[in-house]
Amino acid sequence: MDSAAKDEMQPELSPGPEWPEQERAEQLARGAALKWASGIFYRPEQLARLGQYRSREVQRTCSLEARLKSVVQSYLEGVQTGVWQLARATEAVQGTREALSQARGLLQGMSQALRTLEPLRERVAQYKQLQALSHLLPRLRAVPSAVAHTQTLIDAQQFLEAYVSLRELEQLREDMWAPLGGLELPVFQGLDLLFEALGQAVEAAAGAAGKLAREDPALLVAAVRVAEVETGRTTPLGQVPRDWRQRCLRALQEGLEQTHFGSPLLPAPGALPGWLEALRVALPVELATAEALVAPCCPPQYNVVQLWAHTLHSGLRRSLQHLLAGPELEAADAFALLHWALHVYLGQEMMGSLELGPEADVSQLEPLLTLENIEQLEATFVANVQASVSQWLQNALDGEVAEWGREQGPNTDPSGSYYSPMPAIVLQILEENIRVASLVSESLQQRVHGMALSELGIFLRSFSDALIRFSRDHLRGKAMAPHYVPYLLAALNHQSALSSSVSVLQLDGAPSGALAPVEAALDKLQRRICRLVLEALQAELQPLFADLPSRQWLSSPELLESVCERTGRFCRDFGRVRNPTVQLLLAEAERAVVLQYLRALMQGRLVCRGADERTQAAERLRHDAAQLQQLFLGLGLQENAQCAPVLLALRELLNLRDPALLGLEVAGLQQQFPDVSEDHVSALLGLRGDLSREQQLVALSSLQAALPPSPRASRRALFSLVPAPAPAPASCLPSGSCARALLLSE
Fold first, then answer.
1. Where is it chiefly localized (predicted)?
2. Same domain assignment for residues 30 and 164
């Protein structure tokens, strides 16, 4: 083909650069050439060498073209070789395809031939099975009778013989397995059920291990040996291992739990102590039986004693948890369970017995009762005991209150003091509950102790309220008590008995102020009873003091004799009050009489009309003070506890003849009785009837300049309990007394 034809066959090139990189390279090359040429031919003398440069560049261009042709030629030769190899590979692939097609046809023909030989193969397999059956047919004929005989052995509990027979039957089945190609003959279909029956029989024997160890240990040993042999045997491929050892251990545990904790019924209310007592006797016996009889029948790895102890512990714990999840226990049941679980169970009577080996130790296991269980039982016990104690105390109080209205006076003890068993009963109830709680734990004892003190405080308040109702009904006439004051005095003895014996409720090691609230309540009760007694005394004496002071009082001692007579009669039964309460009561009674006397003096009913009457009044005060002192000395009140000497101090105010010295007497009075006020002094000075306003002011001013009270001054309130009469002005001055303000205004 000529060059013209070749040019016609070439595609027409589109104008413009086909490759942007090529155009950029050409531009860079031309730029570089121009730069080189301008550098070379910059000077005119170098133009003469232009021919040399041209020829050298032509030579270099020819060299580059030759190298390019060589590279292109080698590239074209490589392409030609690759095309030839591709052609050869195509031919090889085509040949392989034809060979595979031929092989596929041959295989299809062989599969058809195999399908024609399949019946023959089945015939051969059947022939081999029949041949094997013909050799084993005598043994196969004996299989049904062997199965029946094995079942008989199992029913007769001949476990070793039954296991040997079953193993022979199983070996025969294994021998038939390979020749028959895994075919299971119908004659062996009941073999697995027979093995399961033997396993259940062994399991039942293990469940009754305690009983069998005592009655038939050989049977227990046979059952355990069968379980151990079967567990250690290597099972054929594809057969599930029979772990009869675990079944035996599980049966031992379940049988033991069923024996002691199998009943789903919880102990009835009140029956829990008996149930726990039965366990206290039975569990050590069970452990002793396990150690002496069951353990020798079992392999050492069974750890029979430890298994027995842990099983009994866990079964007992589950039973107790189930019991606590049911209805709330009564107080006796809660106490019995707490005491049994915390002291008896781990004590020497049961699991801590020295006769048991270390394998029976359960102290490191989870406790029978959790902290929440103990808290629940303690709260239940305290709540129930509190309800019972509250009811008992209320019944004791009701019985005591019922006696207050009877026709007979209070009972007395051999010493003649009023007596009632109520205080002893109250303290005995509380002390006994605290003592019983201490048998369980210190925390329960503290709970019951706090409850006892709380209930005692409630009882004392109820007792006080009952006395107030008793007094109110008597004074209002709703329920007149024939022996009102004696029963108040008997109540004072009850308070005294409680105060003297309440220390029995103090716990060892408890803070000293634990009984302070109860002691404060007892003191309050004592003050209340004394107040009721004194109110009755005041009611007796108030009509007698209506005429004191008066002209009749000045001239005759009959008024105070009547007071002393009635006071003596009223205080006659004070001797039936125990010491030291009787001294307190006599002192309060004596002060009440003196206060009544002072109130009468302060009323201003009498003003002396001369020196003779003042002397007579002073003498009357001395005589009355002596008479009152003699009266209460006779009743048993010590002289240093009496308030009647205040009348002697008042006598000096009336008996003083020089009014200028009244300031000294008033100051002395204030030193002895610091609670005396200006109103009291003004009222007392008013009895004299001979003082001017200025003299009274001078005497009252001595109160402001008086010395501090004497160390021997009376510390008991007297004048502060006596209201001093004073005219009621429009308003009282903020400083000073109403009496002084009245005198100044006049």
1. cytoplasm
2. yes
3-state secondary structure of 439: coil
User: 489 and 341: one domain?
Assistant: no
- Same domain, residue pair 167 and 224: no
- The helix/strand/coil state of 306 is helix
User: Is-contact 205 159, C-beta < 8 A?
Assistant: yes
In contact, 653 and 685? CB cutoff 8 Å: yes
H-type alpha helices, 408-441: 422-438
Angstrom distance (rounded) from CA 204 to CA 188: 25
Tokens of 178: 């390979």
DSSP 508: T
What b/e readout covers 314-328, taking b as 16+ CB neighbours within 10 angstroms? Answer: bbbbebbeebbeeee
- pLDDT tens track for 721-734: 888 765 444 333 33
Would you tell me how many other CB atoms lie within 10 Å of the CB of residue 363? Answer: 8
The string of DSSP letters for 58-117 reads HHHHHHHHHHHHHHHHHHHHHHHHHHHHHHHHHHHHHHHHHHHHHHHHHHHHHHHHHHHH
Mean pLDDT of 475-480: 78
Both tokens assigned to 587: 């002192």
What is the pLDDT confidence band of residue 651, given thresholds at 50, 70 and 90?
Answer: confident
297-328 pLDDT, tens per residue? 888 888 888 888 888 888 889 888 888 888 88
**Which residue shows structure tokens 């090691």?**
509
Whether the CB-CB separation of 717 and 675 falls below 8 Å is answered with yes
Q: Is 330 in the same domain as 467? A: no
> How far apart are the C-alpha atoms of 668 and 648, rounded to whole Å?
12
Q: Is residue 160 part of a domain?
A: yes
Q: 524: part of which helix (H) or strand (E)? A: helix 516-541
- Angle (deg, nearest 10), helices 693-704 and 678-688: 150
Number of domains present in the structure of the chain:
4
CA distance 581 to 488: 13
**300/243 same-domain check:** yes
Smallest Cα–Cα separation from 226: which of 200, 252, 208, 250? 200
Residue 713 has a pLDDT of 53
The one-letter amino acid at 446: Q
In contact, 243 and 287? CB cutoff 8 Å:
no
Helix or strand or coil: residue 706?
Answer: coil
Are 359 and 222 found together in one domain? yes
Q: Is 418 helix (H, G, I), strand (E, B) or coil?
A: strand
* Reported pTM: 0.69
Whether residue 698 sits in one domain with residue 644: yes
Spatial contact of 346 and 352, defined as CB atoms under 8 Å apart = yes
Phi, psi of 418 (to 5 degrees): -60, 140
Residue 352, domain extent = 192-369
DSSP codes of every residue in 650-703 = HHHHHH---GGGHHHHHHHHHHH-TT--HHHHHHHHHHH----HHHHHHHHHHH
Task: Identify the three-state secondary structure at position 337.
Answer: helix
- Tokens representing 493 are 């003895």
Task: Share the mean pLDDT of the chain.
Answer: 81
**Do 393 and 453 belong to one domain?**
yes
Cβ atoms of 458 and 517 within 8 Å: the answer is no
Nearest to 254, CA basis, from 579, 246, 634:
246
Q: Kindly report the CATH number assigned to the domain that includes residue 458.
A: 1.10.357.50
Among 346, 369, 392, which residue terminates a domain? 369
Closest CA to 463 of 501, 435, 495, 427: 495
Task: Identify the burial level of 87 via C-beta atoms within 10 angstroms of its C-beta, where 0-12 means exposed, 13-18 middle and 19 or more buried.
Answer: exposed
Query: What pLDDT score does 4 carry?
Result: 43
Which residue, among 672, 674, 651, 542, has the nearest Cα to 600 in the 3D structure? 542
What is the per-residue pLDDT across 605-632, written as a single tens digit (0 to 9) for each?
Answer: 888 888 888 888 888 889 999 999 999 9
Take residue 459 and report the two structure tokens written for it.
Answer: 């009882």
